[in-house]
Task: structure prediction
Amino acid sequence: MPPIGLIGGSGIYEMAGLEMREERTVSTPFGEPSSDYRIGSLDGRDIIFLPRHGSPHAIPPHRVNYRANIWGFRSLGVERIITVNAVGGINRGMPPGSIVILDQIIDMTAGARPSTFYEEGRVVHVDFTDPYCPEMRDAILGVSRESGIPVAERGTYICVNGPRLETAQEIRFFSRIGADVVGMTGMPEAVLARELEICMAGIAVVTNYAAGISASKLTTTEVIETMEDSLSRVRILLREAVRAVAGTRGCPCRDALKDAIL
Ligand code: HPA
Result:
């Protein structure tokens, strides 16, 4: 069975049932991934973990080499990736501490980050109607119900370039166009996976209310503390999700390039 990829902060990989075997350096035609890939197993299933911001945490969101990270996973045989992202809550129904199983994306980074593997030679317009794998989403929602860990069952992630935080008016605008949460790393990660026919699920952890939603000034301490509080629930979800998503793929992601190449 192909290994399951996990992308997130290093906090997610201190998980019960996890045994690490090796660290693998991978180089790609797109440069260096954020760090070595950490290969191991979780309750007997092969997993490969990559800390998105490097190890130690030093690569800001707009400088992450998303293409190398996703290409590296593919070269290690990964067909499914679960990502964990810290986000600001725009929707008041998703207060700090909420876990959101994402279903939609609005990309405000377009043009600012390399966002395709197909620059020259081949013209590819990959379908992105549903940016996250529907099969993996269903599996994670099932796991949340079984394990009694509450999640918001859908949510639209708006991705900004950062590294600055948003203005209050930007957040009001994002709210009007339907965004529930805001973050800096969800794109182009998700589309790059789709371009390589890799399934991706997005678990967003609301670490703060977005700018202007609450009266208090946003601090990175708040972000880190809320993330740490939520991590025990995220780890349980991840552990069960790795079990639940294994098996043959029946989703459209696996042949995303069919009918996408001009
Ligand atoms: N804005 C953008 N990215 C974020 C935020 C935020 O408020 N919180 C965590 N990541």
Summary: Strands lie at 4-8, 18-24, 37-42, 45-51, 80-89, 99-101, 104-107, 156-159, 181-183, 199-209. The first strand starts at residue 4 and ends at 8. The pocket of hypoxanthine is lined by residues 86-88, 160, 165-166, 182-184, 207-208, 210, 218, 223 (CB under 6 Å).
